[in-house]
Amino acid sequence: MSIQSVYIHIPFCQQICHYCDFTKFFYDEQSATKYIEALSNEINVQVSGEKNYVNTIYIGGGTPTALNHNQLEALLKLVNQKFDVANCKEFTIEANPGDFDEAKAKLLKDYGVNRVSLGVQVFDDVMLQELGRVHRVADVYKTVDLLNQQHLANISIDLIYSLPNQTAAQFERTVTEALSFQLPHYSSYSLQIEPKTMFYNRYKKGQLHRPAQEEEVQMYEILKSKMNENGLVQYEISNFAKPGFESNHNLTYWNNDYYYGFGAGASGYLPGKRTQNIRPLPAYIKQAMVDGNPVLKVESIGLKERIEEELFLGLRKLSGVSKKQFKAKFGFSHEKLYEQKIKALVQKGWLVDGEETIYLTDQGVLFGNEVFENFLLDEQDLKQVN
Predict the structure, then answer these.
(1) Helix 29-46 and helix 281-291: axis angle, to 10°?
(2) In a 10 Å sphere around its CB, with 0-12 CB exposed, 13-18 middle and 19+ buried, how is residue 49 labelled?
(3) Are 55 and 90 in contact (CB under 8 A)?
(4) Number of domains in the chain
């Protein structure tokens, strides 16, 4: 199978959010210019030729739009040189509300970006400040208007729920305001307290009040109900779209297909291996400039790992795992490994064993991690299919 997608990581932010554990650094012009040069060298070394066809391109962060106009243009020129943007199904860039002016929005349009993912998080100025966000609610309106002026209407909004001191009623107001934009795609994730973040330090000191689990479940039910009322179909645990506007790039991950990962801390999935790039900025820049191969570690992906990931990732989709596609990929039926485990999960009410797919029930979605544990294999299991 060919490599389907490209992920490019831009690690710069104007401000570090209190919950974020992605590879990120405060933006400064000189470091960002050096980074773009290093990134260019990595991509040129790893991908031969020009105008290579891929299905999707995704520039994430950090905050890619924290780059100044010249740096952003250099990045977009590089992407257009190496990849066939004109025939790429989906070219997404992440952005923060308020990062745009008219010139930057036009730049995206001119270089073939056709989808923008906005990190809104919550429609509440007080909560935005408590999260360490730079933007305010008014900036969302201005940014969506700027993008629409450039006919960049394929916009997704990201929301976070179960925020400190957030109530279900407050989250419902956020969802309602987000839906008032009538956008084609929305993502919403429960807040995770990750190590090495400001929120984690507060949590360890008992200074961070999280909503109770029952209230978090209530927020998720509100999310699903509101999206459904507005004609947005839940196609993955945390993602909702108008038909035809599902994120093709994220489907690359959930379908367990191959993708390049470029930039500091970026992960890639290539035939037989997963790669993880160096995270620290100076170390990444130095190695990428030396040999274009700033890889920190390589993990071999054998048959066992491929099968496990096919189930873990595929079951995140509400359509589930295709039995036919599983057999086409691996040459045998999933039942050889999982028949009894699937029956047990069906009896629990967590899984549906359909004619063409296996997929999570509503209750199964809430207990996703416990469901996924059932699909771990040991080497003895694989002897059944050899």
Answers:
(1) 40
(2) exposed
(3) yes
(4) 2
Mind giving me the DSSP string for 148-181? HHTT---EEEEEEES-TT--HHHHHHHHHHHHTT
Token duo for residue 313: 């990732």
Q: Specify the pLDDT at position 207.
A: 65
Q: Would you say 180 and 188 are in contact if contact means Cβ atoms under 8 Å apart?
A: no
Give backbone dihedrals phi and psi of 329, rounded to 5 degrees, phi first: -75, -40
Report pLDDT for 199. 60
CA distances from 310 to 147, 255, 325 (A): 36, 7, 10
> What backbone phi and psi angles, to 5 degrees, belong to 341?
-65, -40
Same domain, 101 and 173: yes
What would the mean pLDDT of 85-102 be, rounded to a whole number? 94
Sign, CA torsion 14/113/310/306: negative
Whether 197 shows a pLDDT value over 80: the answer reads no
pLDDT band at 201 (very low <50, low <70, confident <90, very high): low
Q: Which of 254, 275, 295 is the last residue of a domain?
A: 254
Same structural domain for residues 83 and 208?
yes
What is the average per-residue pLDDT within 254-264?
A: 96
What 3-state class would DSSP assign to 189? strand
Q: Are residues 230 and 322 in the same domain?
A: no
> Measured between alpha carbons, how far is 102 from 97 in angstroms, rounded to an integer?
13
- Asked if 354 contacts 361 with a C-beta cutoff of 8 angstroms, the reply is no
pLDDT tens by residue, 113-157: 999 999 999 999 998 988 888 889 999 999 999 999 999 999 999
DSSP assignment, residue 210? P
* Domain carrying residue 366: 303-382
Residue appearing with tokens 């691996």:
330
Yes or no: say if 76 and 64 are a contact pair by the CB < 8 Å rule: no
> How many Cβ atoms from other residues are within 10 Å of residue 118's Cβ?
25
